Amino acid sequence: MKFAIEQLQLDELQDYLREQADDAFPDLKDEQRLTMLAGKWHKNAEFCTCRDENDQLVGMIAFYANQPAEGVVYLPHIFVSREYRGKGVFSNLFVLVKQYARENSYSLIRLEVKKENIRAQRAYHENGFQIDGDTNEKSIHMTYKI
What we know:
Elements: E1 2-6, H1 10-20, H2 31-44, E2 46-51, E3 57-64, E4 72-80, H3 89-103, E5 108-114, H4 118-126, E6 130-131, E7 139-145
Parallel strand pairs: 4-5
Antiparallel strand pairs: 1-2, 2-3, 3-4, 5-7, 6-7
């Protein structure tokens, strides 16, 4: 598998999101929502990607690092294709995010996860994220300190 920080083409991003729609939050089955989010991320986000031996996208972290004065990198969405889950893809992608944050003098990495997504919460805890106390009925906010 190949891990990198790269700018994704909009059509590849949209196709990958469609493949992940059944597992996604927010629900990406709505084509208008998917198109809107893909356009927003394509324009404003950076991407850590994982590609298989055929150069197919099998995992990605979209992240915002567009307000350096705040010192926070925000991870709005993390996707790993089902057949690659539990194989260290997230951990390897997160290494790239941490490296980017350190190299660009960010001090925190934040994300939000659905309360019922126990598997993701466990992966985030295993990679050093802590609940930061900013939660609501549906989600938990987590922070990683650089």
